[in-house]
Amino acid sequence: MCKLALAEVCKKLLAEAMHCKGYRVEKAADLIPTLEEAFRQTVPSVIVVPVDYSENMKLSAHLKEVYRQSET
């Protein structure tokens, strides 16, 4: 039996196959220009933005510290 996880599907190409405009953002600096381009489209747009979830723990620790400092 073959199992295919959705994460393995190229979402940009999937969007284009459904007559949408597909984009993939590889770096933060490209997000705003990609959003601006997507809003100019006359068809629905799908923007794929890979996320590095390993950064979440660092962000959580930082926010916890900021919160602690705001209580004092």
Structural class: mainly alpha
Number of strands: 2
Radius of gyration: 18 Å
List segments where confidence is low: pLDDT < 50 over at least 5 consecutive residues. Answer: none
Q: Could you walk me through the main structural features you see in this protein, from its secondary elements to its overall organization?
A:
The protein is mainly α and 72 residues long. It has three helices and two strands, in the order H-E-H-E-H. The protein has a two-stranded parallel ribbon. The chain is elongated, with a radius of gyration of 18 Å. The N and C termini lie far apart (58 Å). 3% of the residues are buried. The model has no long low-confidence stretch (mean pLDDT 85).
